[in-house]
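[Help] Beginner question about ligand-bound structures

Sorry if this is basic. My supervisor gave me a protein sequence and a SMILES string for S-adenosylmethionine and asked me to "get the holo structure". I don't really know what that means in practice or what format the answer should be in. Inputs are pasted below exactly as I got them.
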Amino acid sequence: MVTRNRLDFSYAPLDTEYKAPEIRTYAGDARSLDLIENETVDLIATHPPYANIIPYTHERNKGDLSSIHSIDEFTNEMQQVAAECIRVLKPGKHCAILMGDARKHAHFIPITPRVLQVFLDVGFVLRENIIKLQWKMKGTRENWSGTKYNFLLIGHENLYVFRKLKEDESKTKFKNSMKWW
Ligand SMILES: C[S@@+](CC[C@H](N)C(=O)[O-])C[C@H]1O[C@@H](n2cnc3c(N)ncnc32)[C@H](O)[C@@H]1O
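Answer (accepted):
No worries, everyone starts somewhere. Holo just means with the ligand present. The predicted complex, written as structure tokens, is below.
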């Protein structure tokens, strides 16, 4: 209901010939997009839980990625999400994923590089890494206004924009793209 409500807005397309597609919404698990056929999606914009830093269900719920307490396990489950994303996306199109890191016992838990790697492993190439600042975080403001901690508060998230290669594009070209350095 929330999704359909958000999608209900009016707009004036630049291309006057443009016909808006039919909107279909599905409720399900991002690890299994079984109602969506291969290579039928033009854009993926996704914002998964950052492992269990914010729980979205009260009890341990198999369908909820935020109920996973181990980063290794979370990374494995995100590999399934990445595999489904590349399966349903049309070649040449983009998949954007917003991801953040966490802190535990005053130490940094790197979640974003693990998620970045699984998306690369399934075959995506990275088009952009956009740093999103978390201006509205209560903790961030407190830190900047003088509260002292013995660590830095995490004030950003990573918006990774991946691209699925077209059939005639060679992945080697992107993997070896550091050659000129
Ligand atoms: C960081 S929030 C994203 C919130 C979103 N940006 C919004 O404005 O509504 C993560 C969302 O992922 C959902 N989620 C958790 N496990 C999931 C799964 N297996 N498949 C799909 N979504 C899942 C959570 O319920 C939560 O709504």
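A couple of things worth pointing out: The chain has one domain: 29-175. The domain at 29-175 is CATH 3.40.50.150 (Rossmann fold). Feel free to follow up in the thread.
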